[in-house]
Amino acid sequence: MNAQGKPLAVVIGATSKWQSDGRNTRLAHGKAVDDSRIPVAARWGIGGAIAQKFAHEGFFVVLTTRTAGNAAGLASAIHEQGGDCGIVELDLASEQSIADAFSTIRGAGDPEVVIYNAGYLEGRDLPPDKELLEYIPVEMFDIAHHIASRGPFLVAKQVLPAMRQRGSGSFFFSNNSKSLRGKKRLTGESLYYPRVMMRTLAQVLTEEYSELGVHVANVVIDGTIDSPGTRALPKVQNRPDIVMNPAKIAEAFWYLHTQDRSCWTHELQLTPFPTVPSY
Fold first, then answer.
1. Rounded to 5 degrees, what are φ and ψ at 270?
2. Direct distance between the N- and C-terminal alpha carbons of the chain, in angstroms, rounded to an integer
3. What is the CATH number assigned to the segment(s) 8-270?
4. Rounded average pLDDT over 64-79
5. Of the candidates 128, 126, 129, 127, which has an alpha carbon nearest to the alpha carbon of residue 139?
């Protein structure tokens, strides 16, 4: 892996729940959807677009996913575009899986960029009369906690020591508007309030590691992201201008990585123009 010795970028959660055969897509539409008319940059959501962007800019990109087959199409697309990438399986609910994945990744070099883009759908399938906390199964909270809070902590422990010793590196979190403050879960939404902890972790790591040369940022994706599954939703078909272009989101992450050290951004909120920014 990475035979040419390119700089290394790792995308945690390189695929999407809204890709053509993703879990959210199947939940919303009852089946997989056709993505042949979807731009390749949007077929795997934010993670896929970021992976393609950094590969285009000369990085060897590690695509992490729980099952390698989920990222096979994305890897093929990157190779067809002339980029280099590899797939590493990683389960954010398992500390051992995270350690094993990064042991494999370090065989290709220490990451220069790590982008935490993992998501989950737990909560979306609860009925309308189950919005209160008392109806949330503990197992559902555990999954949200593993991905939104504990997982980022464990990944940080794997990547920050080398960045600190090198005196450089980028560690970015792909987050959503529910991270800005605690909000009640509404019907059809995932159990998102643990994402507040992800934002808090980004703020803490900024205080701890910025002066050591590590750029940490929390990116708030404040809207619906274009993908095969979301493009088929009625609200998107009725108002296509509210949809966010994953390729442009990826450019924002590249912008963060290439910022001069004299003026780093530590939180960036991206909102489509017709909607009121969340707060």
1. -110, 120
2. 42
3. 3.40.50.720
4. 96
5. 126
Task: Answer yes or no: is pLDDT of 154 > 90.
Answer: yes
Q: Which residues are within 8 A (CB) of 137 and not within 5 positions of it... i.e. 6 or more apart?
A: none
- pTM of this prediction? 0.94
Q: Burial of 227 by CB count in 10 Å (0-12 exposed, 13-18 middle, 19+ buried)?
A: buried
Residue among 223, 278, 202, 217 at smallest CA distance from 45:
223
Answer whether 50's CB lies under 8 Å from 117's CB. yes
Structure tokens at 93: 């609910």
The pLDDT tens digits of the residues spanning 36-57 come to 999 999 999 999 999 999 999 9
59-73, 126-140, 244-258: range with lowest mean pLDDT: 126-140
Cβ 228 vs Cβ 24: under 8 Å: no
pLDDT digits (tens, 9 = 90+) for 204-249: 999 999 999 999 999 999 999 999 999 989 999 999 999 999 999 9
